[in-house]
Amino acid sequence: MASRDDKIRFDARGRDLDEAVEVMRAGYNGRDFHVAPTEVPFSFRHTIVGDGAMTLRSTSFMGRVDGQAAADDEHVVHWLLDGRSRVDNGRDEVEGAPGRPILFPQGREFEFSTEDVNQSLLHLSKSVVDEVAAERHGIMPGSIRFDHAAPVSAAAVQAWHATVRLIGRTYLGSGEPSDLMRTEMARLAASALLDTFAHTSTPMPAALLAPRNASLRLAVEYMHASAHLPITASDIAQEAGLTPRGLQQAFSRHLDTTPTAYLREIRLERVHHALRAATPESTTVADVARHWAFAHLGRFSAAYQQRFGEYPRETLHRG
Fold it and tell me: What is the pTM of this model?
């Protein structure tokens, strides 16, 4: 789970355009920002309060901004108070409306535009959402895929804002919330995210839900959480409290595979999703493969073709 040790409080404001652009670029992994004046005199303010698991943010930016951004390891929801915004321009565009919560697209860079905006945002660590979703629905960690373009019902909007108001009172009240309260607020936000936005996920195999297979479940959860790292079967066994031989036997008996093959399948699925969401202009097959710990591109390409019936470059160009 994301750390809550680093408390975050940040407040930047002023009329310096270069400073404003740099603050926004740093906060949202942005690039190619183009700013144009409007009839409103330029000013900006960007505030953040929270920790490594969740932050509440408020942004005021008087001017028109076009650019690219990415959410990376967080789920980011924003909603307008005033102004105009559009997210994922040219693809699955979502037009902002006052009070309407909008989720940033996941796992890829996207284009956006804003004009004279006052907006609120909630940033939530993906690890928190994975944990809550696994508890609620018994799904595989890291398998949640949100549809940012799906309509959000009026009831869901109302419930979302009620949750955010509660979180806001906790974080912005007179006293500093305890670590336990911060944990509960982040989990509450994760539940609200799952209830508000349409999503799909992969169910956890029944064998992993049996109490007697708790060690195997720990191994699988660790593999999903660390699939982007160069982990070994010994690392997995140690994390699960098993011997390497015991790990091999558990995978063979309950999942009819080996730990190495299971980890490769996780990584192939992650690459497949990333390539479908990306464009040739924003990434390369090699970059995505390396991110998911595939060191030998030739063997990776062959395994990918066998698994999905097409080569990775075909998926990328079709995405």
Answer: 0.84
